[in-house]
Amino acid sequence: MAPPQDSEQYTARHLAQMLGLGTTTITNWTKRHQAPLAFRKSGGRILIRWGDLITFLDAHPGLPAVARARDHIRNAGLTEEAVQPSKPQNLAAVARAAHAAARSASQAALTAARKEKDSAAKHLQIVEDLVAAMTSLDRALTTALGGTAE
C-alpha cells in the first residue's frame, strides 16, 4: 500500500481503523487543549488530513496511543519512514534499541556457552572415569582368570 498523500482526508472512524485505535482516541485528540489534532467538519463528520495527523503524532510522542499509531503506520507501510527514518532522534532511538538487543543477546550467548563448557567438561570427566574403570576391570579380570583379557 502506498503512503497516503498529506492532503488526503479521512473520517475519524477510518483513521482509527487504519491506526488500530478506537474512534474515541482520534476524537479526543481533536479536543486537546494544547496542540489538538487539526480537523474540519463536513456534514457532522470529523475529517482529518493525513498530513495533519502526522504533524500531530510528531508533536505528541509521549501520548500512549501515539506509539501504537506510529507502529501501525510503519508496519502497514503507510509512510516512507518505514523504509528511511528521517529524524535523527528516530535513528538514535533505533540505534539504542539495537544496541540493547545486541548486548542482551550476546550476554545470553555467553552464559549459554559457559554452561555448555561446564557441561562438556563434566561429560569429559565421566568418559575419562569410565575408561579408567574399564581399564581397572580389565586388570581385575586378567588377574582373576589368570590370563590375558581382551
Automatic annotation (TrEMBL):
Tree of life domain: Bacteria
InterPro entries (alphabetical): DNA-bd_dom_put_sf
Protein name: Helix-turn-helix domain-containing protein
Organism: Mycolicibacterium agri (Mycobacterium agri)
